[in-house]
Amino acid sequence: xxxxxxxxxxxxxxxxxxxxxxxxxxxxxxxxxxxxxxxxxxxxxxxxxxxxxxxxxxxxxxxxxxxxxxxxxxxxxxxxxxxxxxxxxxxxxxxxxxxxxxxxxxxxxxxxxxxxxxxxxxxxx
Amino acid sequence: xxxxxxxxxxxxxxxxxxxxxxxxxxxxxxxxxxxxxxxxxxxxxxxxxxxxxxxxxxxxxxxxxxxxxxxxxxxxxxxxxxxxxxxxxxxxxxxxxxxxxxxxxxx
Lengths: 125, 107
Description:
The complex is a heterodimer of chains A (125) and B (107).
Chain A: E1 3-7, E2 11-12, E3 18-25, E4 33-39, E5 45-51, E6 58-60, E7 68-73, E8 78-83, E9 92-99, E10 102-104, E11 107-109, E12 112-115, E13 119-123
Parallel strand pairs in A: 2-13
Antiparallel strand pairs in A: 1-3, 3-8, 4-5, 4-9, 5-6, 7-8, 9-12, 9-13, 10-11
Chain B: E1 4-7, E2 10-13, E3 18-25, E4 33-38, E5 45-49, E6 53-54, E7 62-67, E8 70-76, E9 85-90, E10 97-98, E11 102-106
Parallel strand pairs in B: 2-11
Antiparallel strand pairs in B: 1-3, 3-8, 4-5, 4-9, 5-6, 7-8, 9-10, 9-11
């Protein structure tokens, strides 16, 4: 059974740092792109970042680039999100997501097929 | 960033109705679009990827169509468990962007 379990969420002051973790099990973690998606209270979904299977490539939402760093440890089946210089607008539930990329006619399609339950980050003084 | 605009923002429907939700991209995205369902307090679930490919295990009453800038999700014969919020997501380029969501409520 595929499981994604996030941890590390907390109440932090603006400008501080936090590191989220996601423990993956039930699948070959090193074979998948992974992503973080967040949801502010009462708001919609927002893609944050993703990382390639071997960690050699990543992408970020413009508003977090330079402040957040996504990484992974395939030996530990774990995904991370280092969040620095946190702002009030980063307050959200953060979901760890598996991307089961499909390929048709040389086009790669995302398929976020498994999601964790999320971990809550609150940035407030 | 590509903007994804869903309509309507909310709708009321009865069990057994057919409903269609639309999603418009601010530029062409071929068919690189997915649809997700989210129930209150739960993580989203994948329904459709590549605009029209049904995810394994998702009931066949869900269908997706479209290409370029205009896409739709149709639920044929609403069931009680389908009352939820639905999001489209473009995966044509970075950053990935979601629509604002469409809440399907019971009439």
